[in-house]
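Suppose you are handed a protein chain with no further information: no name, no annotation, nothing but its sequence. What can you learn? This example shows the usual starting point.
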Amino acid sequence: MKKLQNSLYITRDSAYLHKERETLLVEQTVEGQRKKLLQIPIHSVGNIFCFGNVMVSPQLMGFCGENGTQLAFYDAFGRFQARVVGKQTGNVLLRRAQFRSVDSGESHIARNIVVAKVQSSRVVLQRHLRTYGPNLDISTVVGRLRQIVAELKNQTDPERMMGFEGEAAHHYFGVFNQLISSQAGFIFGGRTRRPPKDPVNAMLSFMYSVLSKEISGALQGVGLDPQVGFLHKERPGRDSLALDLLEEFRAPIVDRLVLTLINRQQVKPNDFTTDILGGIAMKEDTRRLLLQSWQARKQEEITHPFLGEKVAVGLLPHVQAMLLAQHLRGDLAEYPPYFHR
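A reasonable first move is to predict its three-dimensional structure. Written in structure tokens, the prediction is:
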């Protein structure tokens, strides 16, 4: 099993990252003086995520590219901007199999992903009902999501699949506000993006962006092309396959993490700022808390529904990338998506 390497999140403005011998040095200029914030062995870092105004030396960029360490840049809202990509790796025969599968219009991979997403969304709602008691609105959505899963299982038309996926998301986020404790002080009026219009959306979009880049790195690690997807159409600069696999993790991983932080009142409404266009962004301390919580969540273990083995949450993207590669090679009859039980 792949070792779960450390992910390093840089959230301080004006931080400077560079390579010093075999260590990674993080510094920040404060009142004209350069202050060392962190120095660690560089080979112990699997991913580096930079948020806001962060500078990285060319030597460190080169090292990341040569050694497969993912280096990604985001703005203060958590929107992905760029990443350092090294030389192409992986089996060319696997990538050719991926392209043939996409070009042939095979629909079962996309269908399995959508079914897993809807099923996991339903389980999140069911867990809320078990914990907090009956709720007519949520129960109605749970029933409709169950119907959608049944209708999807024999579906082969990609357009109809996306229609069902869109309907399921509409119902799910329609009751999402009811999953938030009234004492927390947050109101979720519906899903908004680019920019998010409320703190809940800001946290969701931020974590979706972070996780999608980790999934992209996992796909490259097994030799797949993250830009060629089965569910999301190809678009220049978009990692469509990473977005495909992200659908499996939205509700059970990201949504539950955000809800936990809100309902435990670890984050508060005043932990966010609003720009002149109405976009909501997290303050630095809030962003740091979210990333620390995400790192802790990645260390937790779950039983994988297909493998039947204990797997760290942080390794799930790598496991799903491996399973997808095995299917494309012909070792598995179908791709088994991750779904929450």
